[in-house]
Amino acid sequence: MHAPELEGVFPFIPLSVNDEDIPNHSVFGSELSLPTLLQISTLRRLTIRDTHLGDERWTTAPILCRLEFLDLGSCYHENENFNTRCTERIMAAVGPTVDEFSLTAAVSNSLFSEPTATPLRKLRKLHISPFFPVENVVETMSNLAGSPVEGISVQCFEDDVVDVCTEIERFLNLRVERGCDFYHKLKRIDISVTALDDTTTFTEEETEERIAAARRLQAYCDDLHLASIVNNRPTDKCCISSGHKNGTSFTDVKRARSMTV
Asked: What is the pTM (predicted TM-score) of this model?
């Protein structure tokens, strides 16, 4: 409904139709959309995955909640630039209260790097998903330097371990170059590995290369007095959910504290 640019375009995403006879919601009326969720005053944790985030009402919707945790995925049917713009728009809208943020798309807006201008004034924990473009790790982390980030956790696929460790080292080099004001509250960096699938195998040389990259990064973190864990064993990705066993009912939506879309 809120992605008109995808209507009638391959792969022909199903649209919501024949909903004219559904009664209006007692609070939100008939204009239901993802930005409407921000009017749930009790909402504290919001996860949106694999969903189109291009609704322009993210910038105009009334914000009655105080989000503490935000996890944004990206839309498979859109390009990286589009997903980045959508992510930045939502971050700007709800950022002032967010303590913990997990993202899949890059952040290119340098506004977030200025402590006096960033909307993410309380951000302490930053999570990067395994679907995040590795080549944008340093730029994104640099562009979030305006927040008081204390911990960074990065999830990556097995075949990206070496590249991710290298990018984190580049970021730490940048931190050393820029001095004590750049990520001055940072205390730890953790990396966890997600398996590709059960059929993927690696040579002994590739495995040794991953182990060496992990040890090198941990040694560098030790030199900078940063705590660090690099978990080379694949682990399943956690997904936040709440509400009833089969989802949150509309009757309880006004009291919701956590929601996964």
From this structure: 0.81
